[in-house]
Specification:
The complex is a heterodimer of chains A (590) and B (136). Chain A has 24 helices and 18 strands. With 590 residues, chain A is α+β, with helices and mostly antiparallel strands. The longest helix of chain A has 21 residues. Chain B is an alpha+beta fold and 136 residues long. The chains are: A alpha+beta (590), B alpha+beta (136). At the A-B interface, helix 3, helix 4, strand 13, helix 7 and strand 14 of A face helix 1 and strand 2 of B.
C-alpha cells in the first residue's frame, strides 16, 4: 500500500469505558487488502470463542478497502460480528455513503467493543469520536424519524453516513438490520440486534480528505476505463434501468420464483409486482450510493388518501428491490403492489431484514393453514396468502413480541419450527432464511455452503441459469467447483470493497491494474490464492464457533417443487456440500 | 468563448457524487479534499439533491471581501485564485451565499471552481453542463 495511506488506521471504540484510540494495522491491510480480508482477522482477534452474540464481548467490525474513495463502484462497507441469528459468522455489506465516509474520515476499519449502560449514538468526525446520549431517541417508532433527528443535529461537514437501528434492533429481533442513508442496509444476520444489545442507536461518520495514488496519469486512465464500462456498456444496464426488480419476470418464466412459501415456483400475479410494472406505476426517484454512477436504488412513490379526510394525501417514498419483492410479495402471495409496498415500508420503519421477515411470515402462513399453530398463538390473526393487512399487523407483533409465539418468530424460522413443527417447510440455510432463487441445485447448494448463507456468496443461481440456457447437465463436482472458485474470487472483491453488482467490470485484469494505482503489486494468481485464503479464514471462524457442513439441514420443501433443472435430490446437494468441504480442506470440518 | 459550469436539471441528480471525485482527481489525487463542487441531499435522499458549485457571478462577493486581492474576478464571471497572495482568512467562504467556496484543509486555502468542465464529463445523467457566457 502507499505510504501514508490512512487505510491502515483502525479506530477502536470501547462503549463500556467510553474510550477510543487508533492503532496502525498496516500488517493486516498489507496482507489482506481490507474489507472482508481484514474484518475476519479483526473478528478473530476481538471475538472470544463461544461469545454470546448479544453480550458485550461480541465486537462489531466495519472495514473498507484500498479502492474505496479511489475508484467508482467501490462503494461498500463490510460489517462483521458474531450473528445472533445463526450463532455463527455474521457478515453483512452495505453501500449508501458508509464506505466513502469511513475512508474520508481517515480509517480502514472501526472496531466497536463493549456495551453502553444507557442508549448512545456515536459521532465520528475525522480524529474525534463523540459519545452522545441517545436516551431520547430510544423507542422512537420509525427508523426514518431517528435519521431525521440526527441529520438535523449533526454538522454537515464533508461526507456523512448515518447508520441507525429501528425498534427491531432495540427489541433484539435476531434479524434486525442497520439502515444507512434511509434505504441501504446491513441487512442480513442481525447486526441491528448487536447494536441494540450494546444500546448503540446510531453511528454518524464524516470526513473529507485527499488520497495519494502511485501514478496520477495511470490513475486517470484506469478510472476512465472503469467509469466508461459502468455507464456506457450494457454490463450495468440491468441495474440502472429497472434495477434488480428486472429479475421478477425472467425468474417467474423460468419457474424459479419462490411463491407462497415455495409451494409453487411461479406466481399467477407476478406481472403486478414486476420491475416493469412497478417502474411504470410507482417509480418516483432513482438514487446512487456515493461514488457509483450506476444508481441502482429505485424508490416508489406511493400516494395514499386519508380515508376520513377528503383532499388529504400522503406520499411515501419506498425503496424496492428484487429480494424484498420476492420475500414480501410472491412468497406471501401478494400480487397487490400497493399492499406489498406498504409492507416493505413497515419493515423499513422497524428496521428488519426484509428477506428473513418475508420467509418467516410465509412459514407462519403455511403453519397456520396446516394447523401447526392456531389463533391462540397468533393472537387472533388469521393468516392467509395475499392478506396484506394481517401481515402488517404481524410485523409489529414480531417486533414487540407480546407472547412466546411472536418471541419465537423474532428468532427466525429455524428456531420457530423447532418449537412449533413444520420444519420440512422452514426455508432456512445454516439458520438464515432463503433468498429468492429456486433456479436449481447450485443455488440451494450455494445457500448452504456460502460462508454467510447468502445468494451473493457464490451465485449458484447464475450457474443454474447458464446451464439451463446451454442445456448442460449439472454434476455435484461441477457445482461444487464453481461455487468454491466463485466464492474465493468474491472475497477479493469484498476486500477492496467493490459492489458485487460490478463484478462484471472488476474482472481480475482490471483489479490488478487498479490495485497497482493504490500501491499493491499483486498478480491475478496471487489474488485468487489470497481470495481462497480469506474464505478459509472465514470458515475457520465458523468451525471454531461450532459450524459443521455435514450437519446442515436441507429443507425438504426444496426437493418437492420442481426447478428449471427438475426435482432436486437431497443426495445431490449433500454431494456438493461434501466436495465443497474437501475443497476447503479444513482439518476439523468433515 | 468563456464557459461556466451550469446545473441543467438537478431533479435528475441521483447523488452519485462522481463530479465531486472528478474535481479532486484533476490534481492527480483521489478523494474529495480538493473539490470545488459538492452534492448533498435536501434533508434526506428521498427528497432529492442539491449541487453546490460556483455560478460564476459577474460581480463576485467573494472577491469583494478578499483582503489581499488573492481572488480576482474572472472574465465571464467567477474568480481566479492567486494562492501566493492568499492568507487563508476564510472571508470568501463567509461571503458566498451559495456556500460554493470550499476549503482545502491540507493547504489551508480556499478551493474555487475554475469552470474547467472536467466534472461535467463524469455526470452520468446530464445534470451538469458547460455553458457559454457573454463577456460583455
Amino acid at each position: 500500500m502507499i505510504s501514508g495511506d490512512p487505510l491502515s488506521r483502525v479506530l477502536y471504540i470501547d462503549l463500556s469505558r467510553r474510550k477510543y484510540w487508533v492503532e496502525d494495522r498496516r500488517d493486516l491491510f498489507e496482507k489482506y487488502l481490507g474489507g472482508t480480508g481484514v474484518a475476519i482477522e479483526l473478528l478473530k482477534e476481538e471475538c472470544p470463542k463461544g461469545a454470546d452474540p448479544l453480550g458485550p464481548e461480541n465486537p462489531i467490525i466495519f472495514a473498507i478497502g484500498p479502492l474505496n474513495g479511489v475508484f467508482p463502484l467501490a462503494s461498500k462497507t463490510v460489517a462483521m460480528f458474531k450473528s445472533p441469528h445463526t450463532g455463527n459468522l455474521g457478515e453483512s455489506h452495505a453501500g449508501g455513503r458508509s464506505a466513502i465516509a469511513i475512508r474520508m474520515a481517515g480509517y480502514g476499519a472501526i472496531v466497536i467493543k463493549g456495551a453502553s449502560d444507557i442508549p448512545v449514538y456515536l459521532s465520528i468526525y475525522n480524529d474525534k469520536v463523540y459519545f452522545r446520549d441517545a436516551s431520547a431517541l430510544w423507542g422512537i417508532r420509525s427508523s426514518h424519524t431517528v435519521g431525521r433527528i440526527i441529520r438535523e443535529r449533526e454538522g454537515e461537514a464533508g461526507y456523512r453516513t448515518i447508520m441507525r437501528i429501528g425498534r427491531a434492533g432495540e427489541k433484539l429481533v435476531t434479524f434486525a438490520n442497520v439502515v444507512t442513508e434511509t434505504y441501504r442496509h446491513f441487512g442480513r444476520l442481525g447486526l441491528g440486534a448487536v447494536f441494540g444489545s450494546k444500546k448503540l442507536k446510531a453511528i454518524v461518520i464524516s470526513g473529507k480528505r485527499t488520497l495519494k495514488v502511485s501514478n496520477a496519469k495511470a490513475y486517470r486512465e484506469i478510472y476512465d476505463e472503469i467509469y466508461k464500462m459502468a455507464v456506457k456498456t450494457p454490463a450495468m444496464r440491468k441495474y440502472h434501468d429497472l434495477g434488480t426488480p428486472a429479475n421478477v419476470v425472467p425468474l417467474n418464466n423460468l419457474g424459479a420464483l419462490p411463491t407462497k412459501n415455495l409451494t409453487q415456483a411461479r406466481f399467477e400475479r407476478y406481472e403486478n409486482i414486476s420491475g416493469e410494472k412497478l417502474a411504470e406505476r410507482f417509480l418516483g426517484r432513482r438514487l446512487a450510493c456515493a461514488h457509483c454512477p450506476v444508481g441502482c436504488i429505485h424508490l416508489a412513490a406511493l400516494r395514499e388518501p386519508y380515508e376520513k379526510e377528503p383532499y388529504f394525501y400522503k406520499t411515501t417514498m419506498i425503496s424496492y428491490d428484487y429480494e424484498p419483492i420476492y420475500s414480501l410479495g410472491s412468497m406471501l402471495g401478494i400480487g397487490n403492489p400497493e399492499g406489498m409496498l406498504k409492507l416493505m415500508d413497515v419493515v423499513e420503519i422497524y428496521g428488519l431484514d426484509a428477506m428473513s421477515t418475508g420467509v418467516i411470515l410465509a412459514w407462519t402462513t403455511e403453519a397456520y393453514l396446516k394447523g401447526y399453530i392456531s389463533e391462540k398463538e397468533t393472537m387472533g390473526l388469521k393468516f392467509r396468502w395475499g392478506d396484506c393487512e394481517t401481515y402488517l399487523k404481524a410485523v409489529r407483533l414480531i417486533v414487540e413480541q407480546p407472547n412466546d409465539f411472536y418471541g419465537a418468530l423474532a428468532k427466525g424460522v429455524e428456531y420457530a419450527s423447532s418449537i412449533y413443527g413444520g420444519r420440512e417447510f422452514a426455508l432456512a440455510y445454516g439458520g438464515n432464511e432463503m433468498p429468492g432463487y429456486h433456479t436449481g441445485p447450485a443455488a440451494h447448494a450455494g445457500f448452504l455452503t456460502g460462508s454467510r448463507h447468502s445468494h451473493l456468496d457464490s451465485a449458484g443461481y447464475s450457474l443454474d441459469e447458464q446451464a439451463y440456457v446451454k442445456k448442460e447437465e449439472l454434476t455435484p463436482e461441477k457445482v461444487a467447483d464453481y461455487l468454491f472458485k466463485e466464492e474465493g474470487w468474491r472475497q477479493i472483491l469484498t476486500s477492496l470493497v467493490i459492489c458485487l453488482f460490478a463484478r462484471g467490470i472488476y474482472k481480475p485484469p482490471t483489479v490488478v491494474k487498479a490495485l497497482k494505482v493504490v500501491g499493491y503489486e499483486l498478480s491475478e494468481d496471487e489474488l485468487k490464492k489470497l481470495g481462497t485464503e480469506i474464505l478459509r479464514n472465514k470458515y475457520e471462524f465458523k468451525v471454531r464457533e461450532g459450524f459443521d457442513l455435514s450437519k446442515l439441514r436441507v429443507p425438504k420443501r426444496i426437493t418437492e417443487i420442481p426447478t428449471p433443472h427438475g426435482i432436486i435430490k437431497e443426495e445431490f446437494i449433500r454431494k456438493v456440500v461434501e466436495r465443497y468441504a474437501n475443497l476447503l480442506n479444513l482439518s476439523n470440518s468433515s | 468563448m468563456v464557459k461556466r459550469i451550469a446545473v441543467l436539471d438537478v431533479d435528475k441528480c441521483t447523488g452519485c457524487q462522481s463530479c465531486v471525485f472528478a474535481c479532486t482527481r484533476r490534481y492527480g489525487e483521489a478523494g474529495v479534499g480538493k473539490s470545488a463542487i459538492f452534492v448533498r441531499s435536501l434533508g434526506g435522499v428521498e427528497r432529492g439533491f442539491i449541487v453546490i458549485v460556483c455560478r460564476a457571478c459577474k460581480d463576485p462577493p467573494c472577491a469583494k471581501v478578499c483582503p489581499t486581492g488573492a481572488l480576482k474576478p474572472r472574465r465571464g464571471g467567477g474568480v481566479i485564485l492567486n494562492s501566493e497572495k492568499c492568507i487563508g482568512c476564510g472571508m470568501c467562504v463567509e461571503a458566498c451565499p451559495l456556500g460554493a467556496i470550499f476549503w482545502d484543509e491540507e493547504n489551508n486555502k480556499p478551493v474555487v471552481c475554475t469552470h474547467c468542465g472536467y466534472c461535467v464529463n463524469y455526470c452520468p445523467h446530464e445534470v451538469l453542463g458547460l455553458e457559454e457566457v457573454s463577456t460583455g
